Amino acid sequence: MQKKFLQRAPEVQEALNEGRPVVALESTIIAHGMPFPKNVETALRVEHIVRSAGAVPATCAIIGGQLKCGLNSDEIELLGRGAAAIPKASRRDLAYLLSRGEHGATTVASTMIIAHLAGVRVFATGGIGGVHRGGATTMDISADLPELAQTPVAVVSAGVKSILDLPLTLEYLETHGVPVIGYQTDEFPAFYTRSSGLGVDYRLDSAADIARLMHAQWDAGLRAGIIIANPVAAEYESDPALIEHAIAAALAAAEEKGIRGKAITPFLLAYIEQTTGGKSLDTNIELVCNNAWLAAEIAVAYQLL
Ligand code: PSU
Ligand code: MN
What we know:
By secondary structure, the protein is of the alpha/beta class. It contains 13 helices and eleven strands. The protein has a single domain, classed as Indigoidine synthase fold.
C-alpha cells in the first residue's frame, strides 16, 4: 500500500525518527467493542499506561480518508461518541473509506496494516478475531488471521474469546506460520478467563525474550506476525461458568436474529456484557490495560536490542 494515505501523529513520527519505542493500538474496540463513555476513558487510560512504561502510544484509525497512526484526544472522542456512524474497518473496507475520505474504526487486521506501514512493530489489543464456531461450514474466519499470516507486527492480546472456536483458530495460525507465544503461561488464554485447556507454541517469561524472538523472526526473513498471549490477571478474571452461559445465550440470540458478517463480533460482545451485568466489560478493560503495559515493555526491549 502507498504511504500517501499514511499520516503519523507528530509525536509518533518523532519517536520513530529517534528510534524510540512506539505501541500501536486499535480503534474498533473504542467504537464497537465498548459502550460510551467507558470506551473513551479506557482508550485514554491505555495511552497513559503505554507512556508510563516508556513508549509512545499510537492509536490507529481512518480519519477523513487518511490512515492515521496516532490520534489526539478529540479524534479518540469522535470515535467513541460516534460509534454508530463510524464503520468497523477491516482490510477489505480500507479502499472504499480512503477513496471517499471517510472515517473508520480499525480492527486488528487494519491496525496491523497501518502499524507496519508506519514502521511500528508492536501492537496491543484486547482479543484478536479468529475462526467462529461453525466456521468449518460458514467460513466465518476473521480477516485478523490472514493478516497475522502476512504482516510483520507482534500483537499482544489476552487470547481469543470463546465465542470463537479456539482449536480451529490455533490450527489456522499453525498452518500459516504464526508463532503463538505465551507470556508467563503454557496455556492459550480465553480472553475473559486465563485458561482454555489449549497450549501455546512456546512460553517466554520476559519482555526481553519476546523482543529477541521478534528480531529472530523478521531478521530471518519470515514475514508473518506474532501473537503474544497475555492472560488477564487472576483478580480480574471472569467466572468461567458465567461467561460460558452468557456466550451460549449470545450465540443463540445472534442465530435467531440472523446477525452475520462483521456485525457478529460487536453484537456478541454487547450481549455478553448485558447478560453478565457489566462484569465482562470490567474484565475487558483490565485485560486491555494489562496488554498495553506488556506491549510497551516489549517495545522498549525491542528498541534496546
Ligand atoms: N474482540 C474484542 N473486542 C473487539 C474486537 C474483538 O474483545 O472490539 C474487534 C477487534 O477489532 C477485532 C475484530 O479485530 O473485533 C474482529 O472482528 P471480525 O471477527 O469481524 O473480524
Ligand atoms: Mn467474520
